[in-house]
């Protein structure tokens, strides 16, 4: 068995060209590389990981022929573009694997691919290479499978599965088609999820029974020592600004790398933040405000108001910000990466806007872990002000913070020797020896 492992030490990673999916898969690559595996990353022409290759010394990057131009990806939208990408990428990926096998002398232990890049399964089967699926979402997200839509969610009565993560996803038939493809594990040998048992023990138990193959919770990946927290350039000037603020007073606002807001929503949020009398650090990317060129295009009185109480950056070192003593809350889109990072620093959250599986994540934050507040309905200044005050001024915010700190300690314990991540990694290494 040892001889077999020594003969095949290369792992091929296939990420989606989207930051929220790329980062955790590359963090996994760093962890596996530290265990002695060689890493090859297969990517398309746009949103390339190799542009940040300085973070990954020794990694091999291979570019396959782009089957879907970036302009077409944006025009089709997320669901349709993923279905099209999978239908058109299989042949070029098979050619890539064929070339790698020739170059590497058949030295491929397995292919680990993002669950939304399911075309990889056919190539793995054709070349008799073991495949492992990587999920960047919570284990609980699997409860949204289409054949369970009318069932009541266990422990979340009266919510049905159809109430959870499908709003805002476009035509349901196409969304369900993508769900069915993702849920089909084909000939995969295992599933890796960027989660941790202390947050999702019941969901993980359910999932292991449901999928019929090994499930490895290898999260939180951002807390592993060798992993970069971001592959994008960040503005660190905000740290100096945070250093001047009172402890637990600042609301940090970031709606992810793809989230967008209407100009009206930004105006209402600006007024609500300022009316709360709490300082805020706001990440506003180029293109994140629909129909404008960014914060500079907003009315002068809003710009003046924001500059007096807040600080605006285009990108922040998020984990460092969340760990800063001045930060008392995180206004988030509720992406799974952001949730893990926030819990990892013991910071409670405000949830809005969100779509897809982020709706389920927000529900868990508020109803299960009780470390977050959802802002329901339209985004208006009164609701913003109330949410901020609940988290930073009122007693319920302090109770949420205590619960968040407890979860933080559990996450940190999972990474240490004997913790759940440590043990799951050992189990996955043993699994790799059996392939």
Automatic annotation (TrEMBL):
UniProt keywords (A-Z) are:
Glycosyltransferase, Transferase
GO CC annotation: what is one? cytoplasm
Q: What molecular function terms (GO) are annotated for this protein?
A: quercetin 3-O-glucosyltransferase activity; quercetin 7-O-glucosyltransferase activity
Q: Which CDD domains is this protein grouped with?
A: GT1_Gtf-like (cd03784)
Which family does the entry's similarity section mention? Belongs to the UDP-glycosyltransferase family.
What is the protein named?
A: UDP-Glycosyltransferase superfamily protein
